[in-house]
Amino acid sequence: MASVEYMTTHGHHQHGHDNHNGHSHGAGLAESLTLDALILGTYLEQATALAVELTPTPGVIIDAGSGSGVGTVALAQRFENAHIIALDKSADMLGQTLEAASKNGLTGQVTTVLADLDDAWPEVAAADLIWASSSLHEVADPERSMGEMFAGLNAGGLLMVIEMDGLPCFLSAATLADGTELAALEARLHAALAQMRWNHHPDWRAGLERAGFDVVEQRSYTAVGNSTPDLASRYARMFLERIRTAMDDVATAADLAILDSLLASDGPESLASRTDLQVRGSRTVWAARKP
Ligand SMILES: C[S@@+](CC[C@H](N)C(=O)[O-])C[C@H]1O[C@@H](n2cnc3c(N)ncnc32)[C@H](O)[C@@H]1O
After folding, report:
1. What is the fold, at CATH topology level, of the domain defined by 4-289?
2. How far apart (Å, rounded) are the C-alpha atoms in residues 127 and 110?
3. How many Å lie between the centroid of ligand 1 and the Cα of residue 235?
4. Ligand 1: which residues within 6 Å by Cβ?
5. DSSP SS3 for 172
6. Which of 37, 60, 137, 267 is the most exposed place for a label (fewest CB within 10 A)?
7. Residue to mutate (ligand 1; options 70, 89, 235; most atoms within 8 A of CB)
8. What are the residue boundaries of the structural domains of the chain, listed by start?
9. Region Disordered: which residues (predicted)?
10. Each residue's pLDDT tens digit, 137-182
């Protein structure tokens, strides 16, 4: 059995609150993260292979902001002799991480810690590898958190920061009867979300160096999902439904009407009927060594 440790540094627990970027944490986000890994998860293989090259035998790995646990599982599978501490401010997410570990027969390798990275670094074992995937841009002061991660690593330890280069894309270049190209509509929606700082992050290299790290690798991985149409359709629906909740005062009435027709349960334009969905995404990893 994994030991489950619940910890906050200020004694408060957070459940399903919106973060400062306006993304809500809940079952929808967790399912979205898991679908993303199923469909676009080649980056998990590539980035954990890079981790093996750079730190072959880590004893303790911390997955900082573990979400639904896709990174925790990939790390535990890649590093069979390591112990993975999954850290998140959401108890729901940690529950999902433990469930994912259990489904993959990895329970004995995984411990969860409920902690807010905006508070002081939790009292956990010093790590040989810290993995922060799509989480650093969510904390209030990323440079402060990088400093805490630096202190939380053993000398020679590695921090791997991973971010999506943009939001995942689903729609094709198909043109609707009114002349709207779906991929162009998707690009307009993403541009509006970028204005709202969704997935907002800089190139982390300079910040990592200011925190004392040597950035030893920076790689980008592009993925085109080759999942079943059903999975692609589920992920597209989950993601576009999340986008829709943010779009009311932002998108034009015409774009909103198309988005609604995509999200309708049936109809020729609905996601359920489409055969042209193709999930695409790309991520960058920064691998930074503590001297
Ligand atoms: C977008 S998800 C990414 C999850 C996972 N790493 C992945 O790549 O699928 C970001 C996760 O970071 C967590 N998170 C955000 N801010 C945090 C903070 N201040 N302290 C701890 N966890 C945080 C969220 O609860 C969420 O589970």
Report:
1. Rossmann fold (3.40.50)
2. 14
3. 19
4. 19, 25, 33, 65-67, 70-71, 88-90, 93, 116-118, 133-135, 138-139
5. coil
6. 267
7. 89
8. 4-289
9. 1-27
10. 999 999 999 999 999 999 999 999 999 999 999 999 999 888 999 9
